[in-house]
Amino acid sequence: xxxxxYFGTDGIRGRAxxxxxxxxTALRVxxxxxxxxxxxxxxxxxxxxxxxxxxxxxxxxxxxxxxxxVGMDVFFFGPLPTPAVAMxxxxxxxDIGVMISASxxxxxxNGIKLFGPDGYKLSDERETEIESLIEQPGDVELAEPGALxxxxxxxxxxxxxxxxxxxxxxxxxRLEGLRVxxxxxxxxxxxxxPAALWELGAEVIxxxxxxxxxxxxxxxxxxxxxRMCDKVREMRADIGIALDGxxxxxxxxxxxxxxxxxxxxxxxxxxSWAEAGLLKGGGIVATVMSNLGLERHxxxxxxxxxxxRVGDRYxxxxxxxxxxxxxxxxxxxxxxxxxxTTGDGLIAALQVMAVVRSSGKxxxxxxxxxxxxxxxxxxARFHNGQxxxxxxxxxxxxxxxxxxxxxGRLVIRASGTEPLIRVMAEGDDEKLVRRLVxxxxxxxxxxxx
Length: 449
Prior knowledge:
The protein is about 35% helix and about 20% strand. It has helices at about 25-35, 55-70, 80-90, 125-135, 155-165, 190-200, 225-235, 260-275, 290-300, 310-320, 345-360, 365, 390-405, 430-445, and strands spanning about 5-10, 10-15, 45-50, 70-80, 95-100, 110-115, 150-155, 180-185, 205, 240-245, 250-255, 260, 285, 305-310, 325-330, 335, 375-380, 410-415, 420-425. α1 (about 25-35) packs parallel to α2 and α5 (about 155-165) crosses α6.
């Protein structure tokens, strides 16, 4: 077992043209993943989508060479959201789906996300098996010359996803009269998201729809939503939607340009689906980072909040294992499993707009479902040792939890990519929360200096 040397919490990711995100690794990933999913004598197929990064061309070609060499036919989608690739993996009966994207990261990063034939991201166990083949390419069985794969571009992939997204919107509703600002982050959704909204009847003001290979997520999209908020106010729009580079994440704004995070979106959809008898699992699934205010709100209406570790893949795993159909993260990954196997920013936004249209109420009234508790998050950088195993750090954490005494939460976790300890606290007393977080960060940095 290699302990996920290549794969992180969301596939393989890194700086483009440097290890591990270089052409050689991509070639090996194609060979390894293709070999792993090849079974039986039928023609095997892999579907590949990407966002708009310059390095996508290089990664796409190297990956496809690997897949073709083990006898898999490759279907190219071009720029397409991650959830569209997941959906089309199942729709086209592919053996594996691939998304080339680094999500909300800058253009100089890129990544490879793999989906199984069911459209779900791979488990840790499957990723580890594929890693063993990446490390030992000699174990990969190459195809005979007459059995090599073929490449084909799927011209209607975007149209297929647009129609799919439109079908998730209630048939008896339309978006006529709704003015919508959509920021596509100069990323994978720059064509499909505005088109789907327009075809449903909305007046669409699209920004972040001029990708040039370099400007993905640059001062736009869900991680930099101020431009979207400003445009909402300028155009007097009814709602603003900001997607990230691969469109699996969404942040909304109401008609005043005030931001609405993933917790509020999940609360609104949960309320709506519960009233309609559509909610499954008796509640929703979120991560340890979701606000305590969400948990309290759900409790008041008889619903549960099940928490998982950070990462949408862990949310999805818990949903599948326990029968939930709403889950997500505060950051805007919203998973609605009645429609999709992964986070889908456009579909989540459409569900919010369905409530807006059916209720006739403004977004500012509908999307303030609960009052969030003050929440403070800081990172402590360490240089030596394992901070969370050190006795002074353990004692400081225990003391902070005792001080909160049930009137808040403390979440402390190590970053998966940097030598950082994330310290988050929330509670009814904002001054107390800020003090506890600052004290814990000081202790960690002092003990590991």
